[in-house]
Give the backbone structure.
Amino acid sequence: MSLMDQLFPANHKTTFVVDHTPYFGLASNSHIKMDFTKRPSGGVPPAPIFKSMWTCSIEAVLEYCRIVWDLFPEGKLIRVISSDMQSRNLNNWSSSQQNVNYMLHHLSCLGPPAKLVPNPNRDYSVVYGFRTAAEAMIECTTAQMDQGAKKNNIEVQNKCRTIIITSARDNPSIDNLMSMFHNEMIKCNKYASQPSSMSIHHCHLVIINTYPDSITCEVTDRPSHTISPMLDLEVHSIPASKIGIKISNLLLKHYNLASTTVTGIPMKEEQNASSSANYDVEIYHAATAHTTILNANVADAKAVVAKKEGADYETIKLKWCTPRANNNLPDIHSCTTLHRITPVDINSRPSACLITFLLNGRSVLLEMIKQGGGKSMSHVLKSYNGEIYIHTVSSGRTVLEDPPAISEGPGGKVTQYRISDFGNFMRLNLLQPSKRKQTDDKNNIDDAKEKLKKQTAYWPLITSSTIIFNIRQYTEPMLSLMVKDNLNDHEVMSCKQCIYALIAAESKNEHLLTPSLSNPRKMMKKDDQYKSMWAELETFLKSNLYTENHCKVLQCLFECRGKLDEEKIIEKTLMRFKKSLAERPSVIRATTDSPMSPPLTQQTGIKHNIAQKTIDADPNSVMYLQIVQDQDNRRLNPSSRPQFAGRSKSIQKRNGNLFAKLYQHLDDDTDAKSVK
């Protein structure tokens, strides 16, 4: 992403065009929640009041604006345009009009849509707002004008996004709306002039088709796709009662946000102050706050990630940790990122209580519940100058600490690394310049990478996570031999002897040498030691199945352990090896082939284009190979030396040997003399 794309991305300017026609005055399936505390017993409950399509749409737009303005006080501007018989700007790009109070004031002046009464003299349409939206997009913001005034020879890209909320009958109607909007953009680009206006370089058009819940709609969703070099189109069709959920989902994508749900918040009951209950509060923030969690252990990440109920996005659930007196400041923790937050449901009582608690100067520690049941502190919530932030707590060493030393003593953090084993591993895989000229069909770099991949298929980093690498008196030379590409019968027997030695040690109830622990009292029991050792040894052997002899070692382990069901793995692996060997051509062994070797064409899979009359030699002989090579050379280089006369005129006997008659011209001379 270029510098201009970072300074002025598509979300720098967002324009909403909301349909204000009488059709949007129809009721949706979403009703207004009302709580009657003083209602006579036995009375008839009041009829529910349903929201109109306009109310659902404008509430979703206002919530979109509130979240963006809470998280991005500067740099993310939004304009709202209504359209019925004419278009109306509810605000402009000025920072003084980028707030919810200003929007609410102008919406109260606008009022609800007109009643749906047929009137041919009045033409209501959302199309009137397209021209106004295009004019708003070419209008420069303060940041764009400031950047354009700088003489740095960098062109400012005017990228923007327009979201149209309307109702259409079918897909062709959506195409007509897109075409009219595209034409308006092209017209406005013609008269755009610096410095007050700027041509539109690219626009991301999002059409949200909404309709009453009681009807079905023929408009289908369309993912974002390119219409022209300056326009991308995305279509969503949703009932009016669910438009808020859809716009919230789009909001997370447009601004790269993420959701966090704070669970287990203790709170007193509103009706009964003597009792308390636990509540959950969902908050939005920048997605980078979750990078540490998502890049950590995959199993732990899956344990905290859950799909938001009734929505299309995921949220990460973090547990409320009761702050202690000496642990309520994030300054004592090493924080890597800091981002603003805003609650999703700002009107709910749990959200209001959490926000009030944080604004009063308190901090909240958030814990991540791991899959194994453990906990680790991951984030901290705290407010500064009336704004609430989420801090990401570092789980490892921080940049403020000194780099770790290899020779750290007791209490160090890196003493368990297998440093000596890693040194031996590097010496065994040392790369050196090749003295031979590299052929076209062989790549030494790829071979070295493949060798490293095989040898590191199972290679624990620390001594506390392995047993077989700490009991080399039992497991060597098996650990060194199994990583080789090929094993002979003697090496297979050596590997089996290691397995037999471990079986004998277990039968004698001998104590294995476990990794050194900081507390010797926590040493594993013998049964647990052998159980972990056998499981690790099986994993190691399964990671190094390269040939049939490697499989024999694993089969020996299964036979000794009594795992008869696991022998099916060996059978499938052996069948795979045999199939690959049958399909793989062998290397020509010209000087070592025995008389019983198969023909050359079966060895190499290469068919030489040679006439049978020109070669009267045994296909298994060295002479045959020499003749093939000579004829190939003559075909490639016709000017090469001619073939020996005796070899070219030789005949093959039954035993396969070549026979050439010497001094054939003597017979010709004798015949000539007799004729005379």
